Automatic annotation (TrEMBL):
It holds the Pfam family NB-ARC. SUPFAM superfamilies: L domain-like, P-loop containing nucleoside triphosphate hydrolases. Keywords: Leucine-rich repeat, Plant defense, Repeat. Residues 488-613 form the R13L1/DRL21-like LRR repeat region domain. Residues 230-293 form the Disease resistance protein winged helix domain. This is Disease resistance protein RGA4. The keyword Lipid metabolism does not apply.
Length: 894
């Protein structure tokens, strides 16, 4: 009853900010210890670990969690064999002991036995929260919120039917959502009565209620949804990739003038609106486990999956099946797939290192000649996809993913599969040009129907004569060469491109050749990168004329330009009407560019990033006599780095209307802009401000906002800055949580506190290089700090007495102290012993430190590295003279 939803709310709540790390893992009914640990590491590091053994995975997780306070959510745990599962969970939870005191684990499950098992594994009592169903009024409110979304005054007779329907939903929030989706956008009373009178609502079963949600789907949507039931429980669906699969299988009904991918996207959006999928992150979705369980049973006659190594499991799958997913280490199971004569799609997850996988694939290819979709994932090296793939004449979609450092070669016969629409070679390795010649058929450009080609490292550019692939939609890296088949004219007829990156633009011989790309005619182009390969001075006039003739269509959303050697903007960039749809702009390493286009007038621009443009003097110049306007109306992110000549935000004579400079800006990074003037006032929505090597002497916090929403402030390596006026605006800086002040040697003031003001900064993290900053208000009286880092100070020998006293202010809040790169420091504050909340002490590269003061009983982790040799001798584990003074600390690394 809403277990996952409740956990999601907790996971995203403000209260979880106290945790250093947050981990979310969906466990489900196919529990495997190695997979769960790998999922944890993937959640932490944002990439799948390349570790095979349980011990290696445990070691990796232990290292990631070391001394960190974490929140771990384990969603949807089942128990099949209690003794076996208990042993597996002991393996999973063992590395968690390296985490810091105060870490928490939240578990959701359908069974009480899981709670009992966890209590035994962690040898602690667990707190159980049992969720009951919604009461009838709450359930009706939820049903109405979905069924009547966008309807202001629903008819009374329809409302009355809703009241009767809700009595049959067993108080289930999921049932209320999906039945609300069934009723949505249809106020026909007959439709509502059909749902009310359906016998599926009268069976007192959640599964029956959920079944109604997809039985009423029109055929084209039901086919799409049924196919999804074949995927593993808790599978994350990539919307774009799923739509490609639907197209390959013929599920999408074509409509003249609309591309198939857009139609498929609308299909998926309908299923989301009907609450059959939930969005989990950008572009990725999940099916609720109960919906998945129900749909898997209902569509078992055409969609099936086999997980495990028991050959008898094959007998439980209908021979008429159309779509099959197999996850196994048993090659004999793969060899027997030939019995399914009607397969249209096949997903193979082979988890063993047996090199005979190729022969099993050969047998499948010979027997399953009606396949339109093939997905192969091997967890060990697969040298080559067998040439027998030539039998799959109807193949539209091929995806391979091999967890190996060795490339899997694609067979030459692949070039004869003319119906292929999508080839996805999902591999992390980076290949050299020579290697791509080996693994990719030389005549792959014969696949003239190909719409999408994904190769490792965007190596599409190695294809000679890629212009023959006129239906291709994505070409992220097209590298120009001085040879036929690699000139920019290859792009002339590739008018379906949505994403395009053109590199080595210095290879273009003249402006007329640039015209041959005909970028302006590519009416679907939304992402464009234009890149020269060197910043060395070349023919400036030629580069300027080339860029003039690479004008994109007006539909462009994202533009990136690198190493352009011209001194002026392209003509089309100075015409706002030509680029008015741009949402993101990034310009890198354009050393001669002097005057920026009128980016401030782009009404949809959300992100502007400028790097290494040393001749630009103004962010916004005067164009078309327009000297006063709403500047950067929707800009949210602004990064400016290494614009050494940048003097002011506007050219003389240009001004933004009062209060209208960056009205939506939330993130501002200013790095290496020594001449830039300070902002007249902080943007009203600014949350993050990072300043590095500016020439500012002061930083004021003038703002039209009250309170000021600033959450993070970094001031780093600003030698001219003498004052930061934090104290003056302390009452309005209630949101500030993260503050860094490092390498600002002339800083003497953080502002003046008003005597009548009892406000305090509510910082949680503070990074400094000079401890004397702690004695300036408002830091002097801070009492909420959780983490303090002191870095990069070669002069600090010891902490002044007042700083020693300062630590007593934070004794009940400070949980982590980090001291790093302090070359002269000889002693730590004796007041550390009084820090009753201190859990972690990290000391790195403090070569003059010989001993520690008395440390508090609360300390859980002590890590030191590159201290004085005497320090290591004093605290060594085998007989160090002062080892007994730190023996109470559970986790020590000297």
């Amino acid at each position: 009853m809403g277990k996952t939803t409740l956990l999601q709310h907790v996971y995203e709540d403000e209260v979880t900010k106290e945790f250093d790390l947050k981990i979310w893992v969906c466990v489900s009914n196919n529990f495997d210890a190695k997979k769960v640990i790998a999922d944890m590491l993937e959640c932490l590091k944002k990439e799948r670990p390349r570790l095979d053994t349980l011990v290696a995975l445990q070691g990796g997780l232990k290292e990631e969690l070391m001394s960190k306070k974490f929140l771990l959510v384990l969603d949807d745990i089942w128990v099949k064999d209690e003794e076996k599962d208990k042993s597996k969970w002991e393996d999973v939870l063992a590395p968690l002991a390296s985490g810091s005191f105060g870490s928490k684990i939240l578990v959701s499950t359908r069974t009480d036995s899981v709670a009992l098992m966890f209590a035994e594994v962690i040898q602690k009592e667990v707190e159980k929260v049992k969720l009951e169903g919604l009461d009838e009024d709450e359930c009706l409110q939820l049903l109405n919120s979905h069924a009547f979304a966008g309807v202001e005054n629903p008819p009374d007779d329809i409302r009355a039917i809703a009241g009767k329907i809700v009595k049959k939903l067993l108080g289930s929030p999921l049932a209320a959502k999906v039945i609300g989706g069934v009723l949505k956008n249809n106020l026909d009373e007959r439709h509502w009565r059909t749902v009310l009178e359906s016998n599926l609502l009268d069976q007192n079963s959640i599964n029956s209620i959920l079944r109604l949600s997809y039985i009423v789907l029109p055929n084209h949507l039901q086919n799409c949804f049924a196919f999804c039931s074949m995927f593993p429980e808790d599978h994350e669906f990539d919307k774009d990739d799923l739509v490609r699969m639907w197209i390959a299988l013929g599920f999408i009904q074509p409509s003249q003038g609309t591309i198939m991918e857009d139609i498929g996207g609308r299909y998926f959006d309908v299923l989301v609106k009907k609450n059959l999928f939930d969005k989990v992150k950008y572009g990725r979705y999940k099916m609720h486990d109960l919906i998945h369980e129900s749909a898997s049973k209902f569509f078992a006659h055409k969609c099936g999956k086999l997980v495990g190594d028991e050959e008898s499991s094959l007998n439980q799958i209908f021979e008429t099946i159309r779509h099959l997913s197999v996850q196994t280490t048993n090659l004999d199971i793969l060899r027997k797939i030939e019995k399914f004569k009607h397969l249209r799609s096949l997903f193979l997850f082979y988890e063993d290192s047996n090199q005979d996988l190729g022969s099993a694939l050969t047998k499948i290819f010979e027997a399953s000649r009606c396949l339109r979709l093939l997905y192969i994932r091997a967890y060990h090296a697969l040298e080559m996809i067998p040439e027998e793939i030539r039998y799959l004449k109807h193949l539209r979609y091929l995806k391979t993913r091999v967890e190996s450092f060795y490339a899997t070669r694609l067979p030459s016969s692949l070039s004869n599969l003319y119906h292929l629409l999508y080839i996805i070679y999902d591999h992390k390795l980076i290949l050299t040009c020579g290697e791509t010649d080996v693994f990719l058929p030389s005549d792959i450009n014969n696949l003239f129907n190909l719409r999408y080609l994904e190769l490792p490292g965007n190596f599409n550019f190695v294809i000679c004569g890629i212009g023959k692939l006129k239906s291709l939609q994505k070409l992220n890296k097209f590298v120009l060469r001085d040879e036929s088949g690699y000139r920019i004219g290859e792009l002339e007829n590739m008018n379906d491109l949505c994403n395009l990156g053109i590199y080595c633009l210095e290879k273009i011989k003249d402006a007329e050749e640039a015209c041959s790309a005909k970028l302006c005619e590519k009416r679907r182009l939304t992402n464009l990168t234009l890149c020269w390969s060197t910043i060395d001075s070349g023919n400036i006039d030629l580069d300027e004329n080339v860029l003039d003739n690479l004008q994109p269509p007006k539909c462009l959303r994202n533009l990136r330009i690198e190493k352009y050697r011209g001194a002026r903007s392209a003509k089309w960039m100075n015409n706002v009407n030509s680029i008015f749809n741009l949402e993101t702009i990034r310009v890198d390493d354009c050393l001669e560019w002097e005057t920026l286009p009128p980016f401030g007038q782009l009404r949809f621009l959300k992100s502007l990033k400028l790097y290494n443009m040393p001749k630009v003097k103004w962010l916004e110049s005067k164009f078309n006599g327009n000297d006063k306007y709403r500047a950067f109306p929707l800009l949210e992110v602004l990064h400016i780095t290494r614009l050494e000549a940048l003097e002011d935000w506007f050219e003389a004579g240009v001004a933004a209307e009062d209060g209208c400079l960056f009205p939506c800006l939330t993130d501002l990074y200013l790095y290496n802009c020594p001449k830039l003037k300070e902002l007249p006032s902080l943007p009203s929505e600014l949350k993050t401000l990072k300043i590095l090597r500016t020439g500012w002497t002061t930083l004021n916090f003038r703002s039209n906002s009250n309170p000021i929403p600033l959450q993070l402030l970094d001031v780093f390596q600003c030698p001219n800055i003498t004052s930061l006026h934090l104290a003056d605006e302390i009452a309005r800086l209630a949101a500030l949580r993260y503050l860094t002040i490092r390498d600002c040697p002339n800083l003497i003031s953080l502002g003046e506190m008003q005597t009548s003001n009892n406000c305090h900064l509510m910082l949680s993290d503070l990074e400094i290089s000079d401890p004397s900053v702690l004695l300036m208000e408002p830091l002097r009286s801070i009492a909420s700090l959780k983490k303090l880092s002191i870095w990069d100070n070669d002069k600090l020998v010891s902490f002044p007495n007042e700083a020693e006293q300062w630590f007593l202010n934070v004794r009940s809040s400070l949980s982590m102290l980090r001291l790093q790169h302090l070359k002269s420091l000889e002693s730590l504050p004796s007041s550390l012993e009084s820090l009753s909340s201190l859990q972690s002490l990290h000391i790195y590269d403090v070569p003059m430190l010989r001993e520690l003061p008395n440390l508090p009983p609360s300390l859980n982790h002590l890590y030191t590295w590159k201290c004085h040799p005497e320090f290591k001798e004093r605290y060594r584990v085998d007989g160090g003279s002062d080892r007994h003074k730190i023996a109470h600390i559970p986790h020590i690394s000297i």
